[in-house]
Design brief:
Elements lengths: L4 H12 L13 E6 L10 H19 L3 E3 L10 H10 L3 H10 L4 H4 L5 H18 L15 H16 L3 E11 L4 E2 L5 E3 L5 E11 L2 E7 L10 E4 L4 E7 L2 E5 L1 H8 L5 E8 H4 L3 E4 L3 E7 L11 E4 L5 H12 L12 E2 L7 H8 L10 H15 L1 E2 L11 H15 L4 E5 L5 E2 L6 E11 L4 H13 L1 E3 L3 H11 L3 E2 L1 E2 L6 E2 L2 E6 L8 H5 L2 H4 L9 H9 L9 H14 L4 E5 L6 H12 L8 E5 L2 E3 L2 E2 L10 H8 L1 H10 L7 E3 L1 H21 L9 H20 L3 H22 L9 H13 L4 H10 L21 H23 L6 E6 L2 H12 L6 H5 L3 H6 L1 H16 L2 H9 L4 H16 L2 E6 L17 E4 L1
Parallel strand pairs: 1-2, 1-25, 8-13, 20-26, 25-26, 27-29, 30-31
Antiparallel strand pairs: 3-4, 3-19, 5-18, 6-7, 6-17, 8-14, 9-10, 9-11, 12-13, 15-16, 19-21, 22-24, 23-24, 27-28, 30-32
């Protein structure tokens, strides 16, 4: 840390917070929020900063609102990621060593100890806590734990004893992501690359040729009737392999994958793909077809050979077209087998040509492919060519043909990833493997799914549109491999050869937080499942722990639970966030179910996704060193709402620091303000609005909107206030009052600055526990606000005109709208059907006499109303301003501002052509 005055001040404030946020049950209403605990395998970057700072803003807000707030933190170290890292460091992997030495700034002597994975855990968990404290997170650090301590393992054993007893954990064969190097199933958190890859179930369609089979992996077995050729990569050397006793031709990569999926595979020969080009293969449902060359065929996908259906697969269509444009294979024509509304006979051709795609490399090819596949799956029906399947919807025929392929034509199912590569944190390639004795959570159970769907319907979700994504996740979730052989974590109590994998042991730890600081004193051998049953479920009579202690632990748990809100990234909806709903539903009663979740967007750095493994990160501590903790907090809060993606850009962060400096200067100046001015009532009224709007925004988790109101809104009001002060005045004592409120409104966002300012304003104690400002209805003055708004808008209009006119003004005349135009304004603003406004107004004889002028005014007023905030329109309708009185009182201010004489007249008294342009709340402006 540098000796910057900001850093020195931050260090002093942080000292006063050392134990300030330790939270115990009290008579207050509780607010319990949690956030996904970090995996401490590397340094924190600014993406992590947003993840933990947003909940801190909410925690600080509710603390100031008088609630007993709990914001705990722990460290997730289960699994094999740190083991993979330690292995790479131990074997001298230069990329890993460079990452930890140069990017993460691990000292050489510490790095030397990273061959022990627990040394990595200890170093970075301590670093995380230090940096989190540095950023002002109001965490109860007494509750810190790691997921490999014995007490937590006993908690996991308790959880799974219930799931096992309910038969929600079963043993079976299932495809899993698997690392051969680690000899272990791997989850999303164990991966360096491919963490979003899904395991897809293909079917091999077997073509025959010269005594061997050529299997082609497909998700669309119904398209067998439209196969015109196979594609093979002429640059790849393929293998002949005996697969379960049959001779196959496949890529070497496919042979390796099949051996992991319970197939006996023996390679018996090799052949160049080029030697197979032009040969003929056959299938009973497609007849004889030729093998064509295609360099786009990836030997690492499927079998390395692809069946081509150019009528319905855009990639196949355009690849065949490319060959035929060279004069090759011109006798092959697409074979339509599916009719679909909205497309002609050859859907792939129509989609490609409609999109104007000229070659296979066009980035829109994936989009066009999904368009055709989606349309055919949802609306397509098979044509007469398909024999007995004619007329079947594609969604039905797909399953039927898949079953027929397996039963009658020797096809098998094959599992692979939908994207490649998938890389374990140890640096090795991961594959799909079928394990016989793996333990699985039965997320496929329809009854369990129904319970979770019901739970989702009652959750408070932010933003609300993610509810559909949660429901989709529940629908497609399959059984989940919850154990692995190696790594850190808790052993399966009924099968100690397995450990629970990371996502499976991080489902209900929010309950553990409530007692974590006290249960650490109890010997782990005393923490039987019966003890946890009593603490969390209130059942049984365990003797291993003193009853008074148990009652106290249960009381604390019941005070805090259920949690109010959980904060986590949107990419965890597909696993952790949904898993924890399943587990809560299975274990806890209705009254202890989760209440709400806030889902975060992703973090970008200079427009690109942040990735530690790729070095595209900016470390959080470096940001705090360069800009200050509050600057980092304010930028992260102000850059986007929590559920939106944000983009960190250093050049924009610098301006945030200047904003904090302006706040500090204002508050320090306000300390000496005294007296009264004519504009004080307006400033106080505006302040009540800012309090109300900031409070509402934070209640809705709109942290960016809260900052807009609490900082930029008040700063804007103060600029206008100072502009409106009479000559020689520096402002009234109201400025001290504003400063007091301003510091409290911003305290959740920039707490270091506001703690310091709180003391300078003469207050004792921490602003972190000061009372949140409440709007005072007695200080609201809509009439004064309306008058100032009218003046402000008129000043802006005058400035806009002066900027573009090629002259120095000698006089400005304001022409005010007559009362009949206010009548039109009110009618337009309150009309339920704007199409009827003209007809309604023209019923009035006085309006009819105005003819075209009235018609024009209706159009102009309608446009004006659309440009004004609804609240302003409402105020004008209910309390039309006395524009003459407002501007008469303000003449001296206007003349001072523009250094020119002003005159205010009613538009109907002026002969100037522009006078007729006067509208309610928008005077016509004549500059001479």
């Amino acid at each position: 840390m540098t000796e910057d005055p900001i850093h020195i001040a931050e260090a002093g404030v942080a000292g006063s917070w050392k134990r300030a946020f330790e939270s115990d049950p009290s008579e207050k209403e509780k607010y319990y929020l949690t956030v996904a605990y970090p995996y401490p395998s590397g340094a924190m970057h600014v993406g992590h900063g947003r993840t933990y700072i947003v909940p801190d803003v909410i925690a600080r807000f509710w603390r100031m609102r008088g609630k007993q707030v709990l914001y705990p933190m722990a460290f997730h170290v289960t699994g094999s990621p740190v083991i993979g890292i330690s292995k790479r460091i131990a074997r001298g992997d230069e990329n890993t060593i460079t990452l930890y030495r140069d990017l993460y700034k691990v000292p050489e002597d510490v790095l030397a100890g990273f061959a022990d994975p627990l040394a990595i855990v200890e170093h970075f968990s301590n670093e995380y806590e230090r940096v989190m404290r540095r950023l002002g997170l109001s965490i109860d650090w007494r509750r810190r734990f790691t997921t490999i301590i014995p007490q937590y393992s006993k908690f996991i054993e308790w959880q799974y004893s219930h799931l096992y007893a309910q038969e929600r954990v079963v043993r079976g064969a299932h495809p899993v992501k698997y690392c051969p190097q680690c000899e272990n199933p791997v989850g999303d958190h164990d991966l360096l690359e491919g963490d979003r890859a899904e395991v897809v179930k293909f079917i091999f369609v077997n073509f025959e040729a010269d005594g061997f089979l050529i299997p082609c992996a497909t998700l669309r077995p119904e398209t067998i009737f439209g196969v015109t050729n196979l594609w093979i990569n002429p640059d790849v050397r393929y293998v002949h392999a005996e697969v379960d006793g049959a001779l196959w031709l496949i890529s070497r990569e496919a042979a390796g994958k099949l051996s992991m999926q319970k197939h006996t595979v023996t390679i018996v020969g090799e052949v160049d793909g080029a030697d197979l080009v032009g040969s003929t293969v056959s299938h009973p449902l497609s007849g004889d077809v030729r093998i064509l060359p295609a360099h786009f065929v990836d030997p690492d996908m499927g079998s390395g050979v692809v069946m081509s259906v150019p009528a319905h697969a855009p990639y196949d269509y355009i690849a065949l077209r490319d060959l035929q444009q060279k004069g090759e294979y011109t006798d092959i024509v697409p074979i339509p087998l599916i009719s679909v509304d909205g497309y002609g006979a050859v859907p792939a051709q129509e989609a490609v040509e409609r999109a104007g795609i000229h070659d296979q490399l066009d980035p829109r090819m994936d989009e066009v492919t999904q368009e055709v596949y989606g349309a055919e799956f949802t609306r397509g029906k098979l044509l007469p060519l398909c024999g007995e399947h004619e007329g079947k919807p594609v969604r039905v025929a797909r399953d039927d043909l898949g079953e027929i392929m397996e039963l009658d034509y020797g096809s098998i199912r094959f599992f692979d990833f939908d994207t490649q590569p998938v890389v374990c944190r140890c640096g090795s390639r991961a594959y799909v493997r079928i394990l016989d004795d793996q333990w699985f959570l039965t997320y496929s159970d329809p009854l369990w799914k129904a319970q979770v769907h019901e739970q989702i319907s009652s959750l408070a979700l932010v933003p609300p549109e993610v509810r559909a994504e949660f429901d989709r996740t529940v629908d497609w979730l399959k059984d989940w491999a919850c154990t692995r052989r190696v790594g850190l974590g808790t052993r399966v109590p009924w099968d100690s050869s397995w450990l629970f994998e990371p996502l499976s042991d991080s489902t209900v730890y929010m309950a553990y937080y409530t007692i974590a600081h006290r249960i650490s004193d109890i010997p782990p051998e005393s923490l039987t499942p019966e003890v946890f049953d009593y603490i969390f479920l209130g059942v049984g009579d365990p003797k291993e722990v003193d009853r008074q202690v148990l009652d106290s632990l249960r009381s604390e748990f019941l005070y805090w639970y259920p949690y109010n809100h959980r904060f986590s990234a949107k990419d965890l909806i597909s696993n952790h966030l949904t898993f924890q709903l399943f587990h809560h539903r299975a274990i806890f009663p209705d009254e202890l179910q989760p209440q709400g979740m806030v889902v975060f967007g992703m973090g970008l750095l200079n427009g690109a996704k942040m990735s530690s493994s790729k070095g595209n990160v900016f470390l959080l501590e470096d940001a705090a060193d360069e800009f200050g903790a509050d600057t980092v907090r304010m930028f992260l809060i102000g850059s986007a709402e929590p559920w939106q993606d944000f983009d960190w850009r250093n050049e924009l962060v610098s301006s945030t620091r200047k904003q904090i400096e302006r706040l500090t200067s204002y508050v320090q100046e306000a300390a000496s303000s005294s007296g009264e001015t004519d504009v004080d009532a307006w400033l106080l009224s505006r302040l009540q609005r800012r309090i109300e709007q900031t409070t509402t925004a934070l209640e809705l988790f709109q942290t960016r909107q809260a900052l807009q109101e609490a900082y930029f809104g008040i700063e804007s009001d103060l600029k206008w206030y100072r502009r409106r002060l009479p000559p020689g005045s520096d402002g009234g004592a109201v400025m001290h009052r504003v400063a007091d409120v301003w510091a409290r409104l911003l305290a959740p966002i920039i707490p270091f600055t506001c703690e310091k300012l709180w003391g300078e304003l003469g207050h004792e104690g921490l602003i972190s526990y000061a009372e949140w400002p409440l709007p005072d209805p007695g200080l609201l003055n809509p009439a004064i606000e309306q008058a100032e708004d009218l003046i402000m808008r008129t000043v802006e209009d005058i400035e806009s005109i002066i900027r573009i006119i090629p002259m120095t003004p000698s006089k400005v005349i304001l022409c005010l709208a007559p009362s009949w135009k206010y009548d039109i304004f009110k009618t337009v603003a309150t009309s339920e059907d704007h199409r009827m406004v003209t007809k309604e107004l023209m019923k009035d004889a006085s309006m009819r006499t105005r003819g075209k002028e009235a018609i024009t005014t209706i159009t102009q007023v309608t446009k004006l109303i659309h440009s004004l905030p609804p609240q302003v329109v409402s105020e004008i309708v209910s309390h039309p301003p006395d524009e003459m009185a407002v501007f008469t009182r303000t003449l001296s201010f206007l003349e001072k501002e523009f250094k020119v004489a002003f005159e205010v007249v009613f538009a109907e008294e002026s002969m100037h052509a522009k006078a007729g342009m006067a509208l309610p709340f928008k005077p016509a402006i004549i500059i001479e």
